[in-house]
Automatic annotation (TrEMBL):
InterPro entries listed in its UniProt record: Retrovirus_Pol_polyprotein (IPR050951), RNaseH_sf (IPR036397)
Basic and acidic residues composition-biased segments: 158-170
Protein's UniProt name: Uncharacterized protein
One Gene Ontology term of the molecular function aspect: nucleic acid binding
Protein origin, superkingdom: Eukaryota
Organism: Paramuricea clavata (Red gorgonian)
Coiled coil: none
Region of interest (Disordered), ranges: 146-202
Membrane-spanning parts: none
Length: 202
């Protein structure tokens, strides 16, 4: 009641419109949260907030939380389906393991991985820190390395079978004598079009 009397006195003192001043006061009062209840009078009466020109934050809606939960569940199902189709697995890499580092392809003969193995010194999720034989450390994604096996080393007993690359001449093949080949008669390149035969020359 004190605030209402204050508004009336100010309106009379300034010579303003009392009805407009009362509407402004009541709108501000009804949309302002009460100090005791923590709710605005209009929200307590209408079960909703009135839209005013006062800037305010959009209240959090429970429906939005349900949509986010459903979106997360469906994304997880899609991830599991894709991992199962591609046979994706978490990398079995541990510290002190030997790995081969994937190298950039510069030509057609470039191998997928480097020949010299690296040693894993740290594993942080999908990121691994590897150390070369010279002591230089690199950080790479686990998809860029492959676990090193002893079978990857070339054995010294390997040899190349030359029979696969060189073929001996077959003695049963027929040899064609070029002297027996009858050559086709050579045709003259001179044009006789429009000329009379030689027997008619007098």
């Amino acid at each position: 009641m004190r605030n209402l009397n204050k508004v009336i006195k100010i309106s009379y003192a300034q010579g303003g419109n009392l009805e407009e001043e009362l509407n402004k006061f009541l709108t501000a009062y009804r949309t302002t949260p009460h100090g005791t209840t923590g709710k605005a009078p209009d929200e307590m009466l209408f079960k909703r907030r009135l839209r005013t020109k006062i800037p305010e934050l959009v209240p959090f809606d429970k429906c939005d939380e349900e949509v986010r939960d459903r979106d997360a569940v469906l994304k997880q199902k899609g991830k599991e389906y894709a991992d199962d189709k591609k046979n994706a697995k978490y990398p079995d890499l541990k510290v002190n393991d030997k790995v081969l580092l994937q190298q950039r392809k510069t030509c057609k003969t470039t191998t997928m991985y480097e020949h010299d193995p690296y040693e894993i010194v740290d594993v942080n999720g999908s990121q691994v820190t590897i150390k070369s034989g010279e002591g230089v450390c690199y950080k790479r994604n686990s998809s860029h390395v492959r676990k090193f096996e002893e079978s990857d080393l070339p054995s010294g007993n390997e040899h190349i079978d030359e029979s696969e690359h060189f073929k001996e001449p077959d003695t049963n093949e027929q040899v064609i004598d070029k002297s027996l080949v009858v050559a086709e008669p050579r045709r003259s390149s001179r044009s006789t079009k429009g000329r009379a035969p030689e027997r008619l020359d007098l």
